[in-house]
Design a protein that fits this description.
Elements: E1 3-12, H1 16-34, E2 36-42, H2 47-53, H3 59-65, E3 70-75, H4 85-97, E4 102-108, E5 126-132, E6 136-145, E7 153-159, H5 162-179, E8 184-189, H6 197-209, E9 216-221, H7 222-231, E10 238-241, H8 243-256, E11 264-268, E12 275-278, H9 295-308, H10 311-324, H11 340-349
Parallel strand pairs: 1-2, 1-3, 3-12, 5-10, 8-9, 8-10
Antiparallel strand pairs: 4-5, 4-11, 6-7, 11-12
Helix pairs in contact: 1-9, 1-10, 1-11, 5-6, 7-8, 9-10, 10-11
This protein binds 3-isopropylmalic acid and manganese (II) ion (MN).
């Protein structure tokens, strides 16, 4: 009997449905080759449903998501919905409620992909960012004081718990050990200014590091990480950081690996249900035109398969992507030399 997985699919807004369609095409083909099956439950959450019904993510659906083997998400963000509503109500709600406390962002330059960094080749850009995904500034703590007056103060608090920091740091050490590249883990923080949060992070990092003598530990301030990511990306193996810094540096990282068209990420609960997504957003201006690059969604699918334990299928998808990228003119929407569906077809053909 074939193995069977339950996958929740949330195509979402904008170009989300188009890239997810290609991802599912690849899933269909690779599952047939590898001998497993997927039961898909599709959910129409996103801007359109919210505008029609006022509902973003009902509690009953959240409960259903908890019973899945994985979640595959397209994009969140609608031009007619105020910024923050869908992000908080859907994406962050799932990340928090399902305790997906790691945001994993592999940064790899694939063959033939243009990078804005001069003289850098695929082997030079190959690292992973482990971003804490449940706390920090994203916890949403804060308040207005004397709102609307000249004396107004807006407080936005970064919440860092020992438990939250430790499980993230521990994950990063384990990941670095298993990755077997340079066995180097860089803590990306701001110990020189943010002396509460980063004191806790640094202490936790050093304590956990003592259990991993085989891993070389490194520290860099977040501003320096930005500089080195552009100047010497080959220095990095695994970077661990908090939610806000992780959000920012992974957009920079996405650009050096060829742009949002190819950048994928996973929201992991190592003990529970994880969610995989292209990190690029809903790209309203390209919606419905069959021009968006589906490779980020297809790379997210490869991560999803890896997470299910379907290692062979995961590698098959990634290897197929590596065969396609040299044939494409660009990773950017509308300039690939192929349509969205043609890129999906090529990945299927090269599996
Ligand atoms: C990301 C996105 C989200 C974030 C937004 C859409 C809330 O930018 O996944 O990096 O800030 O985490
Ligand atoms: Mn982001």
């Amino acid at each position: 009997m074939d193995k069977k997985y339950k996958i929740a699919v949330i195509p979402g807004d904008g170009t989300g449905p188009e890239v997810i369609r290609e991802g599912l095409k690849v899933l269909e083909a690779v599952s047939r080759k590898s001998g497993f099956r997927c039961d898909k439950a599709t959910y129409d959450f996103g801007g359109n449903r919210y505008l029609k019904t006022g509902e973003i993510l009902p509690d009953s659906a959240l409960e259903e998501l908890k019973s899945m083997d994985a979640i595959y998400l397209g994009a969140v963000g609608h031009p007619d919905v105020k910024a923050g509503i869908l992000e908080k109500g859907l994406l962050l709600k799932i990340r928090f409620s399902l305790e997906q406390y790691i945001n994993l962002r592999p940064v790899r330059l694939y063959p033939g992909v243009w990078t804005p960094l001069k003289d850098k080749e695929p082997g030079d850009i190959d690292f992973v960012v482990v971003r804490e995904n449940n706390e920090g500034l994203y916890a949403g703590e804060g308040e207005f004081i004397r709102k609307g007056t000249i004396d107004e103060i807006a407080l936005q608090v970064s919440r860092n718990t020992r438990r939250g920091v430790e499980r993230c740091v521990r994950f990063a050490f384990e990941y670095t050990k298993k990755r077997e590249k340079n066995r180097k883990l860089t803590l990306c923080g701001k110990t020189n200014v943010l002396t509460y949060a980063w004191d806790l992070w640094e202490r936790t990092f050093n304590e956990v590091a003592a259990e991993y003598p085989e891993i070389s530990k490194d520290y860099a301030h977040v501003d320096a990480v930005c500089m080195w990511m552009v100047k010497n990306p080959e220095w990095f193996d695994v970077i661990v950081t908090d939610n806000m810094f992780g959000d920012i540096i992974t957009d920079l990282a996405a650009m050096i690996q060829g742009g949002m068209g190819i950048a994928a990420g996973g929201n992991l609960n190592p003990e529970g249900v994880s969610m995989f997504e292209p990190i690029g957003g809903s790209a309203p201006k390209y919606t419905g035109k069959n021009v968006i690059n589906p490779l980020a969604a297809i790379c997210a699918l490869s991560m999803l398969l890896e997470n299910l334990g379907e290692h062979e299928a995961s590698s098959m998808v990634e290897n197929s992507v590596k065969k396609i990228t040299p044939k494409m003119k660009s990773m950017a929407a509308g300039r690939m030399g192929y349509s969205t569906s043609e890129v999906g077809d090529l990945v299927v053909k090269n599996l």
